[in-house]
Every structure is written in C-alpha cells, then in structure tokens.
Design goal:
The structure is a homodimer.
Chain A (H helix, E strand, L loop, with lengths): L10 E8 L7 E7 L6 E10 L2 H8 L11 E2 L4 E8 L11 E4 L9 H4 L10 H5 L10 E3 L2 E5 L9 E5 L3 E3 L6 H4 L5 H13 L6 E5 L3 H12 L4 E5 L6 H7 L3 E3 L8 H8 L6 E4 L4 H9 L7 E4 L7 E4 L1 H5 L3 E4 L7 H13 L9 E6 L3 H9 L5 E5 L1
Protein name (chain A): Alcohol dehydrogenase 6
Cofactor (chain A): Zn(2+)
Function (chain A): Alcohol dehydrogenase. Catalyzes the NAD-dependent oxidation of primary alcohols to the corresponding aldehydes. Oxidizes secondary alcohols to the corresponding ketones.
C-alpha cells in the first residue's frame, strides 16, 4: 500500500457548490476532511450529470426539501485516496464507483431477495450527511451537505464504505461512472424489476439515458418489439443504437399515446417502462399495457406528485411496479455491470454525448434541459 | 327430459329498473342454441356486485341494460345442451362461470391471464354470443347478468361459461365457488402469490375477504391481520385463519399507519376486498417498501385510485385480481375437489338460507352486514 501525501489531512480542492435552490452552481474552493471510521475518501475522476441533480436544484416543487448549501452529483467514478479505520473492502489506489444506494449486506433488506433498499444510513444520506450526522465538505467555514451522502461534483469526496464498490482496474472511469445511476437504473428496470421476457413487446417512454438503458435492457432480455416513445424525434436514431425497433412521437398523433400503442400492438404492450418521471406519462404507460398480464414499471424519479389510475385498469390484470437503481444490490452488482461493459455485453460509450470540465458544469445542465445531450461527463 | 328443446316457463327474480327491488316473475327460458347449455339452478349465492348493479348505477358495468335477471354465483344440473356441446350432458352437476375459458384464444393460451376474450363484449352487455338473451318476460327480452342469471330456476349460458363438477358436490355450498370464494382465495394464492412465513393484511371481511384470509392461511402466512370497521366479523375471520384484527374506527391514526407500526414497517401482502379507492390506497400504503405486494380484489369502476408515486418507485407492487386469477373451467372443479377433501371451507361462509321469493331480504342482510353469504335455494 502506497501512502499518499494527502492521507489523514484535510484536502483543499474545487467543487461545484449549490448555495441555494434555483441558482446556478458555483465553482468554489472547498475543504474535504479525512475519512472517519468506515468511510472512504475518493478522488473523483469523472461524473455524469443526471436530471435529478438538476431537479433538486431547479425543480424543488417536485422534490422533497433538501438542505443547502449542497454539493450535488451522484453518478461518478474515481480512485480511493484514503480509507478510515475499519475499512477492509477497498484500499488506496482502487478504482471505485460511489453508490447512492448502499449495500451493508447485514440489514434485513440486504438479506432479502425482494429489495435492494438497504436501510443503513438511509435517513442520514437523504439529509445530505454521513453516518455521524455531519458532512465532510466545508466551504468558507460552512458545512456543505453531500447529496445523498455522495457529492461527485467535487474533486474529492468522502462516502460511507457501504456506499462504494471496487471495480476492475481496467475500467475507463469516464464511462463507467454512468453505472452509478442512469444506466444501471434503466437497464435494471427492464431485466430485474420488469423481468422482461424473451419474445415480448415493450414500450419505453422517454429516451434520456435512463430510457435508452431501459431499451438496452429490453433488448438484452430478448424482447421482440421495443417501441421507443419520445416527444423529441431527434432521439429516435440513438434509440435504434440501443435496440429500439419502432418509434412513436405522441405529438404526431391526435389520439392519446396509450391508444396509439394499444392499436399498434393489438391490445397493449407486455411491458411498459416510464422513464420520464411525469405522473401523466406514468398513467399513460399503465393504460398502454395489455390487460392480459401487462406490467408497467415506473422508473423516472419523482417524489411529491401523486399518480392517478382507474381501478379497473389494475383489477383486470395489469401490474404496477417501480424501481430504484434498477433493483440492483449495488455493491455486488455494479462491478458485474462494469464487467459486462468490458466484455461488451452492455454499451456505455454511446450514452456520452458531451465532455466538459468542472467549471463548465452549468452548461451540462443547460444541455440536459434543452434535450441536446444524453449524458455529459464532467472530467475532473 | 320432457322439457328438452322446448321453452320452459319458470320463476325468476327480475330487475325491471335500477334502484327498485327485484320482482318474482314468471319467465320463459328458451332452449339452448349451438354451444349453449340450459341449466336447472339449484342454489345461488348473492354477491355485492349483484346489489351494486341494481342500486349503484355506474359503479359496476357500462352500460347497464335493464330489465335483467341478476345472479352470477350459482350451481345446478344440466337440463339440456344445444348442438355442438360435448363437454357435458344432461344430468351433470355444473357451475356457471363469470369468466369463460374457451381454451383456444390468445388469453386462454397465456399463463399470465385468465381473462378469456371469447364473447367478452357480449357478456358484458348481458347477452349471449349471438347478441340476444334466452330469457323473456311479458313478451320482453330480459338481459342475463354477465350472460348467466342464476336468480332464475332455469338459465342458459355459453358452453365456455360452465364447468362440470364432481357428482357428490353439494350444490348449495359449491355455488359459492362461482364467484366470491374463488375470487378471494385465488387473489391470495394466485395473484398475490403469498409466501410461507409472510405477514398479510386483508381489508374487508365479507365473503371475498374471508376467502382471501383462507388463501393466506393455505399459503402458509404467519400473520394474517383482518381489517374491518365491523368488529362482529372478527370471530368468523378467526375461523378462516386470521391471527389478528384491526378496526380502523378504534384508532385515531390512519389504518395504514397502524398496520405499519404493528408490523415494523409494513405488511408483505395486502389484499383490498372492499372495492373502495380510499381503502385501496390505504392498502398500498400499509405494504412494506421492501417488496410489499398489494392486490386489489374488491370490484369497482367508481373513482380514481391515487398513489404517492414514490411508494411504487421504492419497491411496492400493485396488482389486481379478477376471479382470483383462476382459469375458470379447469380450476373450479379442482376447487370443488378441495372442498370435498376438506382443504378449503365453504359451509362456514353460509350464514343464511332463503327461497327465491325472499331474495330481497338477502340483499338487506348483505347491506346491513348481517350476513356473509346467503344461499338462495331454488
């Protein structure tokens, strides 16, 4: 083990700080404290930018309140800079992906095959602090919260050991960072949560990174028809790359999209995956499903709004499910997904449409909102 | 039989218009046409759906044609069969079915659904396959509720809507397998796929709910919490396997909160057997986020179900069940066998026995919560 000169010391580095909701991120000098017991400090090499990062900053009416100031970012990859006492699973120099969903391996949830929602530190990380109730990032003498206990929009961050997993040393960090959230979520929604079957007909609503990953998951599962739905027809070409067989733009039809899909499929799809995070689209996705056992998986993240359904749609045989991080048991699954990428079972490069530096991070948000990007990777 | 091929005059309980009591009338039942079976009804249960169709317009089916002979939970004996019927013959004991099973359509061939699509639209309009009914009264066509009409001494149903059962089956009890009991029991074992050792909550302790309790017990659930606003039902729920009881009226907190506290986070399976969207929501919210499953069983077209999206995103599953998910023609005879071998209870559901001309009393008993199942003995 090679000791780094920063080990055990406060690191001064750059981070993109959200001082208050509704304002652009500010590039600041921050101080990152050394890891405490069972924590890992990571030098972040690359980070994707997710719609939910934008939503917590700009769409706060739809999200539960989060404490500010805050360093966002939850889709990153990096190298272990140092570990705190008691950490045995990762070491200095290891390539790792921080995880917004932990896997302690011991709690009731981790022991259950039915859920991936480890309860360890859940309440703390949702409040932007680590297990002891504080964060490791300060700026101008003020504690800065860590988004879901992670904060990948910083050159260095500290996460609980159960929120990080070691990955293959050959993994290109500027691509596998996407497995920290969007790609794993969409892909897992199809193969784990929906349990898409070979020969089935699927519809994926929304062709951002999550939706394209869901398309990829449907293809991997052997679906015969994968209908990609988006109001931006520019996305259909890349949809094809990931496996979509058909495309529908709701704006091209006077009938509701669910009606269009039911007609296209003679009664409804076997699986519908909603990857937008809009309650009206969720309802449409349910109604687009076949009553003969159709399954709708809601994937797009939303916190406050309520979904409304006609009871008969469920009584007559449809199933409604949701997914969080694609249903993966994070610590053990992400390294395998990295392997799947290295062995070309899953695509990652094709998601990356832009590369920017940390000080250009607000441009990444603009690219998301204008629909011009799929994933922008921030290279630290 | 002397009636074969002829119109039969008999008694039936006719609903002339919505909101009015049933009227015992002399009706004429035409002989069965091709692929139809005429049945002498021996006994019929009474379901909440029958009452709802009559008294709560808009809550069950669209459209609601009148006049109609209601009843969809019956058992009887084949009186005659029309051309092409090969699966049963005169004298066979049978149960008419709210869900058909033609065995050939895409739905019947799929393991994922029991909703045979054959004749669906016609039966939902209360007609047989050719778009007419076989019952007339005072020279007027009378519709057949879901193409069945068990509130008549004789009825005619499509052959795919009837199944032959064991000759020893007591018709005044196995009639309940035509709807309520099969629905609740199947909701637990087929739709919910309740697992051994699990914790379940059943909302509503009518026949469907009690059958769901029985299904949870059969599946090996460890805890079965029965929920009803009428505490008088807790005793009979114990008979069917409930281990605990909760009356929402005894708590100031919402019932889902009570259940989450009772179970340290939520139940593994919740079965809503009331048919109320408020209760459906409570049932979802009572489920554990660690893979909890809520099965909607109670039938309603009324209102909209609203859910917190995050509840679903964080891992709950919402399903619905129609006739318990059973492939009707092949499953109901097996359920009869299970009753005959003591695996499932039926007698315990029957709280009252009345005659056809007392049928309005049966509705009163149901609505006042005094009965679980009243059997009309023809």
């Amino acid at each position: 083990m090679v000791a780094m000169e920063t080990e055990g010391k406060v690191i001064k580095c750059k981070a993109a700080v959200a001082w208050e909701p509704g304002k652009p991120l500010s590039i600041e000098k921050v101080e990152v404290a050394p890891p405490k017991a069972h924590e890992v400090r990571i030098k972040i090499a690359a980070s994707g930018v997710c719609h939910s990062d934008w939503a917590y900053l700009y769409d706060i009416a739809k999200m539960k309140p989060r404490p500010f100031p805050l360093v966002l970012g939850h889709e990153g990859a990096g190298v272990v800079e140092s570990v705190g006492p008691g950490v045995t699973k990762v070491s200095i120099g290891d390539k790792v992906i921080p995880l917004f969903l932990p896997q302690c391996g011991q709690c009731e949830r981790c022991q259950s095959p039915k859920t991936n929602l480890c309860t360890k530190n859940w309440e703390k990380t949702q409040q932007g602090v680590l297990a002891d109730g504080t964060s490791r990032i300060t700026c101008k003498n003020q504690q800065v919260h860590q988004f879901i206990g992670i904060s990948t929009f910083s050159e260095y961050t500290v996460v609980p050991e159960d929120n990080v997993t070691k990955i293959h040393p050959d993994a290109p960090l500027d691509r596998v960072c996407l497995l920290g959230c969007g790609v794993s979520t969409g892909y897992g929604a199809a193969v784990n949560t929906g349990k898409v079957e070979s020969g089935s007909t699927c519809a994926v609503f929304g062709l951002g990174a999550v939706g394209l990953a869901a398309v990829m998951g449907c293809k991997a599962a052997g679906a015969s028809r994968i209908i990609a739905v988006d109001i931006n027809s520019d996305k259909f070409e890349i949809g094809k790359t990931f496996g979509a067989t058909e495309f529908v733009n709701p704006k091209d039809h006077s009938k509701s999209i669910q009606e269009v899909l039911r007609e296209l499929t003679n009664g409804g799809v076997d699986y519908a995956l909603e990857c937008v995070g809009d309650v009206a689209v969720m309802r449409a996705a349910v109604e687009a499903c076949s009553p003969a056992g159709g399954v709708c998986v809601i994937v797009g993240w939303i916190e406050v709004e309520e979904l409304s359904l006609a009871p008969l749609d469920i009584l007559l045989g449809r199933t409604l499910k949701g997914t969080y991080f694609g249903g993966w048991k994070s610590v053990e699954a992400v390294p395998r997904l990295v392997q799947d990428y290295l062995s070309r079972k899953i695509l990652l490069d094709e998601f990356v449409t832009h590369r920017l530096a940390l000080d250009q991070i607000n441009q990444a948000f603009d690219l998301i909102m204008s629909g011009k990007s799929i994933r922008t990777v921030i290279e630290m």
